[in-house]
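User: Fold this, then the next.

Assistant: Folding the first:
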Amino acid sequence: MSAASLSIDLNGDVGEWDSTAADAAARFQADADLAASLSSLNVACGGHAGDPGSMRALARLARDRGLALGAHPSFPDRSGFGRHPMALPPVEIERLVVEQVSGLVRIAAEEGIDVGHVKPHGALYNLAATDAAVAFSMARAVARVNPRVVLVALSGSASIDAGARAGLATASEVFSDRAYEADGNLTPRMLPGSLLTDPAAAAARLVRMIHDGLVTSRQGTLIQVTAMTACIHGDTPGSADFARRLRAALSTAGIAVAPFA
């Protein structure tokens, strides 16, 4: 396959604010600036952040800009921004994912746009990557809401297998701005170097993931990955500029940016 025929979806985690907050307008503008370089949005739907007003604003933004719209459910952990694992039974994980995704689906339908994918957030995403029971509960919840929705999950993770078992299409995700461990999981955020801040280095790494299916772990080992979609975190300072420079580097490398669906 030639470089010119390659493409990648660039997704961003957005809507991680409440519409009633004093800084809501500024937070929406930051999301809009980031979205200018993306092809799909993952919208927080009330677990770790977000409310009906923020969901509606981002659904309209995705509709007006022709971006793919996805739900970004999480553990109900607003104080910890969804980054603290919670020991919940599978039935409760299924319930909360159904509730959060359904909320965005209803609002999006009112705004004339479909929710085409689901990507869990934070601790729920990371736990589902390694825990088969959690992964299947999450995948089953997505299938209950809409079996035609695509489950976005860490490349090579238990979530990819769980999605297939639940009858869902899946999209293997890589991360443009996060370091990897030797086992293929993301480096925990509390460790130094877990977040990549150099756009040039991040772009070179992403191009390699797309071309060769390889990424170097923090320990120096090579990990095989499948890159269908790449994440840029909206809560990272300077994320809009990071995304612009990343997209420009992809263009220079002959890699198109387009929604995976």
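Now the next one, as you asked:
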Amino acid sequence: MTRKTTTYFVIILLVVGAVIWVNLPSSSIHIGNFVRDLETKLGLDLRGGMQVVLEVDLPADSEVTTQSMEDAKTIFENRANGLGVSEVVFQVAGNRRIVGEFPGLTNTEEVISVLRQVGQLAFVPMGKTPIAEGTTVNVDLAQLTGGTSTIPTTTPEANPDGTATTETPTLSAIMTGSDLTKVGVTQDQLGNYEIAFELSDHGKQVFADFTSAHVGDILGIVLDNKVISTPQIQSAITEGSGVIQGSFTLDTANALAIQLRYGSLPVPFVVAESRVVGPTLGSESLQKSLIAGLIGLFIVMLFMGLFYRVPGLIADLAIIIFAGITISVYKLIPVTLTMAGIAGFLLSTGSALDANILIFERMKEELRNGRSVKQAVGLGFQRAWPSIRDSNIATLITSLILFWFGSQYGATIVKGFAVTLFLGIAISLFTALMVTRTLLTILFDRVKPTNLARWFGI
């Protein structure tokens, strides 16, 4: 066995080991603050839940920019996080619609009330000690409207059992998000991400007065009564512009910039349509699809074994490995499985078998022409490769087109089909060209068959 074959075999063993680990019931990933469970994510049509179509509430001739739609989508995603459903999906559909899917939720009023939040952004002093991000507070806007306002000191009340309860703190705002005129993500000289902002004339004066008198204090940023950031005032901000620094990644900086840019949505939306999908229909569909897929896979594997004999059995093993890798990738990304997504997976399984059939037919031709088994294996893969390459490239391009179409028009069914088909085709190339070939090479390095009819079905 050559060094190259040995290397490929080790890679296959490592991949199979990883597949087994990912598919163990208790497996999960914990890397620092990154936590990912490895459960299969089921889509709306399989798990049941709710779909909401949101439409821009402006005259048809009003211009709505792509950036406004993307920002609105991000704001809706942030608001939906409070529902506690990790698989919520929002996507822009065309120029004026956003489609939201909430697997597992059927309370229409709860979902719509969250999406219709006011989105009030406020800047509140916190003194020297910041309140933890994510804490719910009461924001007092009285002083902004000419009233009187103080930051009350609350005394914990005692429960009957003697334990203390803490009231929700009330904080006075010095400014709202309406005084922000420009917000964007920039980088400092060291390449760290920060949020740059500019203020209106009124906001410039407020910031100049407050920051000059409170250097070193915390000026909290609160959205819908929830603390989202607690930057410290490093110096007086008197020019009407400044930066918010912190341990930002590009994604977190962009998310905060959008929240600052639009305390409320950039354009108004109305709920154009909402519907509830029952979980009973989804579970029945999933069960029937799995049964049909298993029956089909069994028949195809039986055909491969009977028609191509030993290479066919190795191809069957490669297909099992292909299925394991594919399911593992779905869990790692993660991919939300829908009925259409399962169809894409099954179709890619057929493509994986197609590649093996092309290879094995070429091998049979070489054996009939008097080639040795080792030569036939090598030439079978070499001469079948152009056909495999061209057909799979065409399918991959088609998948990308379908994905673009689904993204542009909110066709989640098409998008799910395209994603699973693309991943399946890519993985099938790995199993057909590496797994099948490596296992055949190892086998026929050790076994020298003489009865070709029994071993290869010729």
